[in-house]
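Lecture notes, part 5. Sequence design as translation. It can be helpful to think of inverse folding as translation between two languages: the language of shapes and the language of residues. The source text, in structure tokens, appears below.
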């Protein structure tokens, strides 16, 4: 308890911890619910067809899609509303504990509900169970990683001007170098590494010096006339890497529905 008080409460990390826990738990619960709804829909597909001499009847369920006025309301709607309300309350009142813990929990829950349907923002279509929908899993993983990094880090740029020998000028140079490394990570196609690297400088530095993903703009521009380096990048991010990524996405979010064959 003393460790928690010293390193979490006194350091001002308690709202971030509550938000991260709310984020992770909400994502796991939402995915469990949506997978249950999907499995039930497949198992009871025959119930949606009209019976002989009658009309289809659908039993009411405790767990199911939310429909208002015949419109399916996706859970990202509730998530966006929660995030907006939480932000407004924090900006207006800047409350202390325990209100800040409640708002932190609300923010984590809202962020999880919204990011779980990130692919629907990206494609402006209901692609939740399609292969494109796996972008939501990647967005949630990035969000969780950034939240964990913020919880651990003491400053978004590592150190403060007073901690850097040489004062403000040395601090500014370190911040520029750090952000440059994060930008290189993004250019190399390492979105998660770049996002975490914004908070943790060493992650950005490591990601910047390692190979780029073959599909990234960095690889297309800089590996075009360097076949050996491109071959190394393709080997590192090849079929085995993709298979590992797919196993993680399937474990967390469920297997996507394969696309229908062309008619």
């Amino acid at each position: 308890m003393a460790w928690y008080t010293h390193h979490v409460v006194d350091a001002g990390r308690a709202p971030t911890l509550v938000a991260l826990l709310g984020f992770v738990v909400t994502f796991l619960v939402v995915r469990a619910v949506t997978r249950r709804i999907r499995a039930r829909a497949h198992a009871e597909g025959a119930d949606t067809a009209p019976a002989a001499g009658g009309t289809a009847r659908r039993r009411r369920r405790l767990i199911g899609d939310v429909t208002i006025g015949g419109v399916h309301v996706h859970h990202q709607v509730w998530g966006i509303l929660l995030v907006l309300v939480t932000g407004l309350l924090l900006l207006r009142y800047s409350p202390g504990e325990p209100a800040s813990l409640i708002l932190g929990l609300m923010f984590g829950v809202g962020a999880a509900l919204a990011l779980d349907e990130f692919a629907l923002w990206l494609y402006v279509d209901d692609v939740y169970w399609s292969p494109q929908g796996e972008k939501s899993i990647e967005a949630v993983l990035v969000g969780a990683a950034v939240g964990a990094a913020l919880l651990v880090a003491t400053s978004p740029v590592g150190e403060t001007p007073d901690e850097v020998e040489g004062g403000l000028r040395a601090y500014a140079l370190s911040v520029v170098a750090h952000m440059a490394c994060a930008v290189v990570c993004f250019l190399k196609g390492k979105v998660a590494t770049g996002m975490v690297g914004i908070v943790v400088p060493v992650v950005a530095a490591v990601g910047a010096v390692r190979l780029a993903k073959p599909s990234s703009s960095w690889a297309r521009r800089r590996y075009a006339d360097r076949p050996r380096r491109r071959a190394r990048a393709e080997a590192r991010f090849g079929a085995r890497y993709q298979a590992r990524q797919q196993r993680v996405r399937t474990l967390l979010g469920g297997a996507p529905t394969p696309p229908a064959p062309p008619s």
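The translated text above is only one of many valid answers, since several sequences can fold into similar shapes. The chain has a mean pLDDT of 85.
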